[in-house]
Design a protein that fits this description.
Length: 124
């Protein structure tokens, strides 16, 4: 099962171009593939469930950023001037926070683990 498919994004942005969504998904998966152990065809349902929202919202963020061009509006009243800038300051697909969370997901042990409940031996 793929980690993310276009319909995962299109349910939130039905007006988005499917070809653009596919390209952004490929880019996001390409960037995430630098994480040790990351697999596009992950089979662990827990990893899939944790990674899907991160990848989905990264693609949606990028779709919302548009071209990324910033526009400025300057208003002058007498000796006073104010400038406001609107637009995206970054077109980065996966943020450092996204990558850190994906690293945590793939560094977590998968499978069985052991918890030792016995008291530690004391040495004197």
């Amino acid at each position: 099962m793929p980690l993310i498919e276009p319909q995962h994004v299109l349910v939130f942005r039905p007006d988005a171009d499917e070809a653009q969504v596919r390209a952004l998904i490929e880019d996001a998966l390409g960037i995430a593939s630098t994480i040790p152990g990351f697999r596009r065809d992950e089979t662990n349902p827990t990893r899939i469930a944790r990674a899907l929202p991160i990848l989905r919202w990264a693609v949606i963020r990028r779709l919302d950023a548009g071209s990324g061009a910033a526009t400025s509006v300057t208003e002058t009243a007498g000796p006073y001037t104010t400038t406001q800038t609107f637009g995206s300051s970054s077109l980065r697909l996966l943020t450092e926070g996204d990558l850190a969370e994906l690293r945590r997901i793939w560094s977590a042990p998968s499978g069985a683990f052991m918890v030792n409940t016995a008291p530690r031996a004391r040495s004197r």
